[in-house]
Amino acid sequence: MSETWAPDDRRQLATIARNITTRYFALAVEMILGFVMLPFNLRHLGQEAYGLWTLTASLTIHFSVLDLGLGGALVKFMAQYRAHRDTRALNEIASTLFFLFAAIGVVSYAVAVGLAFNLDHIFRITAAQAHTGQWILLIIGLNVALNFPFSVFGGVISGFQRNDANNFVAIVTSAMVALANAAVLLAGHGVVMLVAATTTVRIVAYFMYRRNAYRIYPPLSIRWSLFRRDRLREVAGFSVYTSIIDWANKLNYQLDAIVIGAFMGSAPVAVWAVADRIISGTQRLTNQLNAVLFPVIVDSDTTQRTERLQKLLVEGTRLSLAMVVPIAVMLILLAQPLVRAWVGVKMLGSVPVIQILAVAVTLRVGNATSTTLLKGAGCVRYLAFVNIITGLVNLALSALLVKSLGLVGVAIGTLIPVAFASMFVLFPAACRRVGLPTMRVARRAVWPAFWPAVIVAACLTPFRGISSGTLLAVLIEATVAVAAYLALFFVIAVGRPDRAHYVAKAMELIGRRRTLAPAA
């Protein structure tokens, strides 16, 4: 029980490494399958049907705001009371949120039903498209409704810093969803049957998450008798602000398809979806470190370890930028041959969108450690206020610019407020929270990750047109450039002390694994 209840600093690095490694494996599987399935689905469904699927599904993405930020708060309080070894508090919070989420799930499905029968009043679509969209939304809405209560089990696992268990389930689920997808379309069925099959797989996966939660935390007990109003008030004091953050994230990053559908119809949504798939994949691929750090930050703040928070801010920001910057530079320079080779010339309208959003995702991921720290170390109210203002400005600019600039205007409307908030508001606030000068953190974390990209971009620009136009050629060119960036970063940019620190930690992990293997 010592591993379950008492976070051990000697194990902390191994825990983070295990969670990140398995998460990246899960993401690799998901992204590779998504990369293959997108053109497959476009080819079998057609642009109109695929755009309708994307547009209709985008409505359900926003249903997550109905959790009122309680999902993020659940992870926070699981980590907090785990540090205090309080079994009763853990079970009371889990039970309270489970039954509350069950009620929210019922409400969410009622909303989905209402939207399903009014799609032709929301989007510029035909009557036949509206009928198909109804079935899509009713099926996906069921998955969303069940996700609310079952998310409690995922929150328990995350709060106990055992994300690796969730990641293995995610790997199996991604593979099964892709198989179901391919089987349905190859059998000649349409988009409604496709959504039904893939949704069934995802619902089955919820029971696997439930099983993991009871295995990782055996004393877990979900009972109505443990529902407590005072626990709800305690969690709500934090969740009200995380809900605002969630709403703001929807405005900033997930409402664009709605704006495009309302002003331009369903076909341009498919073009946007190509860019969104690449950018969201980049964001997810490069931001997993900060998701894993959240319970660590909560634990450090609970035990008042300011020095540890300082270290997390500097190293988290530096490593986050080192992961996202080279990929963003490659997307900016190679977007056109990538899109041409991947989905064809009909989707080249996504190229400028990819280039603009690549800058936005760099700022978002690079600043993610700052936002995670503010959220987990007592500044969630400030973070919520900044995020909601950013989201509202994003929505207003996107709606204004889409009329004159189309998809590019929506992308610019996203970039401007995100850039301002990241560079001039949130990053300085995180530095103040841990008691470090902003310029010192920028010098130690931002500059080492930035200047190698300038050199690589300057070297790549004259040669970006030499590729044969195949997807393999584009990927090889990008891989060589990313490898050159990483070599500059680790060999020169980070400096000798930090490089020695990273090597020592890597050797520590390797040594621990070699020690544990014979014991196992």
Question: How does this structure look, described?
Answer:
The structure is a single chain. Mean pLDDT is about 85; it is low at about 1-10 and about 515-520. This protein has helices spanning about 1-5, 10-45, 45-60, 70-85, 85-115, 120, 125-160, 165-185, 190-215, 230-255, 255-265, 265-285, 290-300, 305-345, 350-365, 370-375, 380-405, 405-435, 440-460, 470-495, 495-520. About 45% of the residues are buried. The chain has two domains: about 1-240, no CATH class; about 255-520, no CATH class. The radius of gyration is 23 Å and the shape is globular. It has 21 helices and no strands. The protein starts with a helix and ends with a helix. The chain is mostly helical and about 525 residues long.
Task: Summarize the helices and strands and which ones pair or pack.
Layout: H1 2-5, H2 9-45, H3 47-61, H4 70-83, H5 87-116, H6 119-122, H7 127-159, H8 163-186, H9 191-216, H10 229-254, H11 256-264, H12 267-286, H13 288-302, H14 306-343, H15 351-366, H16 368-376, H17 380-405, H18 407-434, H19 438-460, H20 471-493, H21 496-519
Helix pairs in contact: 2-3, 2-8, 2-12, 2-13, 3-7, 3-12, 4-5, 4-7, 4-10, 4-13, 5-7, 5-10, 7-9, 8-9, 10-17, 11-12, 11-17, 12-14, 12-15, 13-14, 13-16, 14-15, 14-16, 14-19, 14-20, 15-18, 16-17, 16-18, 17-18, 19-20
